[in-house]
DNA sequence: CCATAAATTTCCATATAATGGAATTAATAT
DNA sequence: ATATTAATTCCATTATATGGAAATTTATGG
């Protein structure tokens, strides 16, 4: 009875997907789904049936447990193209990973989050915040995420900071201040020591539209030993050169920039 | 007015996702979506709004056109794990790609389709039916797809053949006969010359449960020159060894087998 | 730059489709 | 076997999605 958008059933269905997504890989039983989504059993059953018919949910093995279906994987690999960004950026990521010997990430904005769209490992494999491709972190937490946030237009930046304050607090971090964000814009990159995983540092540079709206960020993850202050400028420069190259290609192609 | 499952709104919403998925990367406008899905404009608008709020749809650039959102990419990369199958199989695919120098695919069943869950290229890059990770082909068309179909229980096999007959016809191919499928089961592998792309051959072996239900297939794609009849047995044997290895690992792990 | 057309968005009375309580059936646990 | 819990079906009720109409915004072209 909270709000009536005229799409309760759809939103409930999507809510079920979200619940199943967060669940462990053994999957969820119908009862659990109903409980988590605050639905009555028959309601949950109907929606689950529809999602299963469509391939958005699938049974685990031959049990009755439910996990995400492969149709989502298919749609995801279409949606993940994000207007060709991943394809355009991949060679750059590979070059950077090879040149630095470290771990490179392509982060793009999706609503209030930054999503890891691609990742290229070289010699050293790093545990980042987002970790894997498809992982997400609230805008403002993590280097790539921070860099994207810093380049959002002021009004939007404020909205996002407010919206993510509690989420980031819950992760025992803080929303970056406007001063910090301004610094990121001025410097053209952001570096931080990972507060979650000791000994890990990250840095990121933005990929911008001609009007300097952020599309994405290239981030590096490495151990402190491998990315000392002396080495940073050279690495950042390489990353910036590749970012410019990607920007140029995106502008050249009649294609399409990601947003929202 | 066809059937009333009690989830019209949800199914319509998912239908919109399917429509957008098939659309070119420039995205669809609301009018087009409404037309394709046979919805009234306001209805389409409401559903689209809900999908956009949830990140399942996103605007293209700053236009009003819609494409799939990154939330689908995130969910997809969770759903794509398919109970750990991709992770378990990846080393095997890499080994095979390296050993053969050709292109290896991991295909899994999803409803009436076989979906390409992973792909490892070696020296030679091949244009397969499914092409890319996330691509799908109707069960019965393509080597991996064919192999999975061949190992389905009889009743299910029939259902799928009937269900896919028209789809496969539309692609100017034929549903395999029961005799062909029996042959695949007996031989333990399937080889064919690609009828769509000249000079390309494929072959596939199944990954089965202990009860011999098909989970997935490993497929190879190569040029005729690179995969002549003399070489085939050796390659098939390698693939079968890796398939056995994957089966063993899947049984060992308390984990989870894909299905649906 | 303004006029016109087209697409998008909002509004709301109506009817239909989703809802959830109760009962049934199936699957586990004891 | 029996008890317990979960999954599914049924159906009367009403909350919810629906779509016609209108307002608004955006695109088009004169």
Automatic annotation (TrEMBL), chains A, B:
Keywords: DNA-binding, Transcription, Transcription regulation. It holds the Pfam family HTH_IclR. Gene3D superfamilies: 3.30.450.40, Winged helix-like DNA-binding domain superfamily/Winged helix DNA-binding domain (1.10.10.10). Residues 71-252 form the IclR-ED domain. Residues 7-70 form the HTH iclR-type domain. One of its GO terms (molecular function) is DNA-binding transcription factor activity. The keyword DNA-binding applies. One of its GO terms (biological process) is negative regulation of DNA-templated transcription. InterPro entries: GAF-like_dom_sf, HTH_MetabolicPath_Reg, Tscrpt_reg_IclR_C, Tscrpt_reg_IclR_N, WH-like_DNA-bd_sf, WH_DNA-bd_sf. It comes from the Bacteria. PANTHER family: HELIX-TURN-HELIX TRANSCRIPTIONAL REGULATOR, ICLR FAMILY, HTH-TYPE TRANSCRIPTIONAL REGULATOR RV1719. This is IclR family transcriptional regulator. It comes from Ancylobacter mangrovi.
